[in-house]
């Protein structure tokens, strides 16, 4: 019965809803109680999409140190809602071998912000005074859940396939940064270096210093730090 478990189908709504529950029932029917065996069966039979997804969600820990319960919890959390969390997982996957630890969070946060195509969500993120890459998706997910933004920020399946392929080839800090520049914006986002409509890897401002934050890699009109400070100033003014 266990060898009849189907691979995870990311575009099958019914399968997404019941995949983990179905797996747990099969384990019970076969008297499979060992958490190590449950984990091994899941990772062997889940299929390539789910395997990459699980590794992306658990990049900080080796899979052989994670329990089946933790993996199942991450899968459920990841699939609801699917689109933003998938984008975040793909970004984390790309940064797995990045050695720029001090600037990685800012880099991922800015790339996430540039990839969100919905103006309502984009307007909400800069209002947070201490916005981090960990916090940004939580805010975006709350907005998406409350206002049903899923269709506005859905990225085509083949774009995520490109992200995953680039991540598998990413084996150095230099290539990590190059690959992150190729991450597609989520339907509506533009170049995060200058706000024009093309990939950041082809932007002529790739080595430009921002006149506002003095960081290399973008111009002032696309500066996330400036946008956040302007937003905070506007909020303070409206309160006085």
Describe what this molecule looks like in 3D.
By secondary structure, the chain is mostly helical. The chain has two domains: about 1-80; about 80-190, no CATH class. It is about 55% helix and about 0% strand. It is built from eleven helices and no strands. It has helices spanning about 15-30, 35-45, 50-55, 70-80, 80-95, 100-115, 120-125, 135-145, 155-170, 175-180, 225-240. The N and C termini lie far apart (about 65 Å). This is CCHC-type domain-containing protein. It comes from Trichinella pseudospiralis (Parasitic roundworm).
Number of helices: 11
Major β-sheet profile: none
- Give the termini distance in whole angstroms: 67 Å
Q: What's the mean pLDDT score? A: 70
Approximate strand percentage: under 5%
If you compute it from the alpha carbons, what radius of gyration comes out, rounded to the nearest whole angstrom? 20 Å
Question: Which labels suit this protein?
Answer:
single chain; 240 residues; mainly alpha; 2 domains; elongated
How is this structure best summarized?
The chain has 240 residues and is an all-alpha fold. It contains eleven helices and no strands.
